[in-house]
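Task 17 of the worksheet. Students: predict the tertiary structure of the chain below and write it out as C-alpha cells. Keep your answer in the requested format; marks are given for formatting as well as content.
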Amino acid sequence: MIKVKQFYLNELRECCYILSDESGECVIVDPGISTLSEQNRITKYIAEEKLTPVKLLCTHGHFDHVMGNRFITDTYNIPTYIHPEDRPLLKVAKNTCRLFQIDIEEPLGNTIDLKDGDKVCFGKSSLNVIHTPGHTWGCVIFYSPEDKICLTGDTVFAGNCGRTDLPEGDNRAMMESLTEKVAKLPADTDIFPGHGPSSSMKEELLHNPYLKRETWMRFNIGL
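Model answer:
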C-alpha cells in the first residue's frame, strides 16, 4: 500500500510528495526545494522512515517544482523522469529562479522520458502515467488504481485547474485533458495537487467548475 507524505516548499507553497510502500523504496515527486531547511526536512523524513529513494518524478518542468532536482539526484544518486516536451524547461529553471532571487543548481538534463501509458514502478507499487497537456506541453499526472490516489501536479487543484496563460500553456489542450482524462478517474480517487490541499474526484466532479460538467453523465447528484 502506498503511503503519501506531503511537503509544502518554497515561497510558492509547491507540494512535494514522497511515495513509499512496505518495501521501503520510495519515489520523490516535484522536489521544489529552495532552502537548506527544506533540504533537511526532506532528508530527515527519508532517514527517519528508513526509506530508499529510487526515482525522482516530475509532473512538469516549471521552476517551482524542480528547484531541488539537483539536490535530490546528487544526494541519492537517482534518475529523473519527465515528459520529453518539458525537458527544455529544466534548462531554463536556474535562470528563471534568479528572477525570484533564488539560486539553485541546474537540474540534470540526462533524464528518462515519461510518456502516456507508462508505468513507474517502485517497491511493490506502480503508478500509471497519464499525459495531461495544458498547463505545460509535457504535464503528466501519476495515478494508482490499486491505492486510489492521483498526483495531479498543476493540472488540477482543489476547486480549480492550472493556469494556461504562460508561453507553454494551451487552454484547449487543458480542457481536453480535464474532460477526456482527469474527469474519467473513479470518484473514490484521492487527489494530491501541486499546490494547495488534497481533495477527491467525487468532490471535484461535484464542485470544480472545470470538471463538474461531467458529473451528470456519471453520477447521481446525491452521491
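Marker's comment: The CA atoms of residues 52 and 100 lie 32 Å apart. Residues 219-223 have pLDDT under 50 and may be disordered.
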